[in-house]
Structure prediction request, 693 residues.
Amino acid sequence: MEAVTSNHVHAGLIRTAHRGRSRALLFLLTLCALTALFATATPARAETPGAPTQAAYLADRLRERPVYVTDQLPRAVPRSTAPEFARLARTTGVPTYVLVLPSESVRDGEALLGAVHDRLGRDGLYVLVDDHGVTDATAFGVRAPADDAWSTQLYELPYDAGPLLSFERFAEVVAQGPEKAAARAAAARAAYEDDEPEAMYIGPSDRRNQSFVTGILLTGVPLLILLLAAHGRHLRRRYAGAARNPDPAARRKPAAAPVVRVVAVVASAALAAATVALTATAVFDQTASSGTKPPTPAEMSARAERVAAGLRQDPVYTDPESPRVLDARRLDRLHQRIDDFRRSDGGGPVYVALVPQTSENESAGDAELFAAAVHAKVGKPGVYVVADPADGTIDAYNHGLRLDRDRLFFDLPDAITLGDSRADRSEDHLLGERLDALMTFLDRTPRTDRPVEGATPAPAPSPAEDTALPPLFATDFWPGLVVGAFAALLLSAVLAGVAALVLRRRRPATEPFARLPFTAPTEPSASWLRRTAYAELRALVREFAEREDQPRAWDRLDAALLLVDNDPGRARRPGTDPATLVTVIVLARAGRAALTGRDDDLCCGVNPLHGTGVRLSHVRVSATGRRLLPVCELCRDTAIADPLGIPPRLLRLPAPSGGDRVPYYDATDGPLTAVPRGIARVVQRVRETAGVH
Prediction:
């Protein structure tokens, strides 16, 4: 009996032991299963527990209203444009949902629209718009020509049309239906395949070019009118001749330009200046470089207020409009590091904003300015970190903690702020790993005795100033005035030269006899002598052909032709002796005078280029010498009123041996020396020299 009882007890102990081992084994298996489950589930979490994904967040916004405009693009698409987007969306003829987001927040537009549609659960036309225009559009459960409408607005509109006008054109084409939309898209692609439409707006550089051109025209055109008028008057006098004035007193000075002509020229120049100014103001009437409506102050501060409100609840704020870049494990790790730093000696709060920075936001893409604005709205000291989930940059700014300013500003490694090649290849830019490295850097940053305030960054340009163009009469307008004056001088000189060349070739110029004493040079250049000799000789040949019954004129023409071997063209060729050229001029002018009935034989002996002499007179030709010379009226008056004024009026030619110029009668022993004895004696000397009787 005792044995049986003992066996039963032993068996019970064995069963109890087996049940204990089974339970332990079951517990271990369950624990392993749970561990494996959590180990596989934890890395897959891509967002904060309870926080929606990007698609879910946007679907919730569209559930409230069919158009959602981000607060991150106030400079390009203010939120006040949402009603206008909604009005245009209703014109498509199908349920239309519009998302206006920064392009930096969208990795795959088509995939995002599909995910939003799945979350929202409503069929319709889903459209994605960024700060430039419509970027993606997909129709779910409705018949809408989304692709053709997108192509049409892309090709028909210039790049600076703006998002609102882009969506307006998109909605217009959708409303036309599939057939018309397809035809319109094909026509747009054919018309603008190689050349896009002209820009709608101009930029600051274009305005500077407009100001420069306006300045050039404003001085160039009026000044050119004045200069051309002056050159024209000179050319008329030189090549057409001036009217002879019978009054001897009037012949002693150049005729003055009529007052009416001067007033007309000045009035024309003033009218041209006014026309240029008014035309430039009317043509260059742009005042802004964009058609965007300026945002309100509330729209400019909305994003900073949203981020600040989130940071007051959680030191890590993840932009709900952007893809998640921190999984749950990295996020928990970052929270733990922030808590440890806050409790450390000399540490404090750290606020991390995972928000994209674009040039169209309120801070114009300046992370330091954004951090300062968020700090001002949070109202607490700390290190404010701006991590851009789009480009992966990280910036940290100390506002009121006891941290070494130079260490944080100058020594923060590029591997943290910009990342390395691994970060560039990673979709999340390894922000979790780099933020962890940033916390390590903050832990090792030396502490200071007093809190260090961050620098106050320069304010971002206001939206109105950002798009406003400079005044037309500013910037490069002033250099344009100088260039315009220089261009007018240069162009007028070129035109005058061309006109003179044309007139000279068509009809060589001759001076009127009454003007000779006033215009004849005392030290003529070789080019002037060649040009004048040719012109006078051609004029005599032409005039003699019309009146051949003047023997005295024939003698003078014959003598002049002997000097150039019967070829007037030789007078223009370089190398001809200056004294010979002067003799040709004197004989040609004397022959022309004979043809007009002026049968005078005397020529001014002070300067034979003065033309006819009126009397013989003893004149002072040097400080110590006097000579009996025929003189013209002007030289006669000068000899009486100012005898010492005659030597400066003597015609001087290059000396035979070179060097300084000497009076013409000392520069040659040819026929020109016979001028004081009359034109007939000059003709005789020419024939004697040529061996003609």
In short: The chain has 25 helices and 14 strands. Residues 229 and 265 are 7 Å apart (CA to CA). Residues 1-22, 24-50, 240-256 have pLDDT under 50 and may be disordered.
